[in-house]
Write a structure and sequence with these properties.
With 168 residues, the protein is mainly alpha-helical. The protein has a single domain (5-165), classed as Rossmann fold, CATH 3.40.50. The protein is 61% helix and 10% strand. It has seven helices and four strands. The protein has a two-stranded parallel ribbon. Strands 3-4 form a two-stranded parallel sheet.
């Protein structure tokens, strides 16, 4: 959460002439309510069930870029859907950068705690190994501009596709 998935995803989709989807935005669009309200009414489990259904559906589409919510990686079904249906890019960020980017955002239910920084550290420790486990490409999002990051990702994609196109 706060790594830049939506921002970078939109730019990558535009550069590669693909359709962009954000799983959280799709959930909000289809339910007509925001994520915090879903958490309030259905709890995290209800939200995660909705998220899994959306990710399964969207990951089966062709010619898209899909940005998922930060916790999507917790569900093995989501990891399988993503890994088997596309190229997974992990935008890795330091916890301090995530904190700086999300500290004033009230639309992040998991950070509405007495110590959001501690929560971010906990989430990072839990999620980072899972992201690394399914990622085809890992890019540190750090302090660089979105356009510089997109250029880096495009270079990684080019190398990945070239290597996969070579005979064994």
């Amino acid at each position: 959460m706060g790594a830049g998935k939506t921002t970078i995803g939109k730019l990558i989709a535009k550069h590669l002439d693909k359709i962009f989807f954000d799983s959280d935005h799709e959930i909000e669009k289809r339910t007509g309510v925001n994520i915090p309200l879903i958490f309030e009414l259905e709890g995290e489990a209800g939200f995660r069930a909705r998220e899994a259904a959306i990710i399964k559906e969207l990951s089966e589409q062709k010619n898209i870029v899909l940005a998922t919510g930060g916790g999507a990686v917790l569900n093995p079904q989501n990891r399988d859907s993503l890994r088997h249906n596309g190229t997974v890019i992990y935008l890795r960020a330091r916890v301090e950068d995530l904190w700086r980017r999300t500290r004033h955002d009230k639309n992040r239910p998991l950070l509405q705690t007495a110590d959001p920084l501690a929560k971010l550290k906990e989430l990072f420790a839990q999620r980072d190994p899972l992201y690394r486990g399914i990622a085809d490409i890992v890019v540190d999002s750090g302090e660089q501009s979105a356009h510089a990051l997109v250029g880096q990702i495009e270079e990684h994609l080019k190398r990945l596709y070239e290597n996969n196109a070579k005979p064994n």
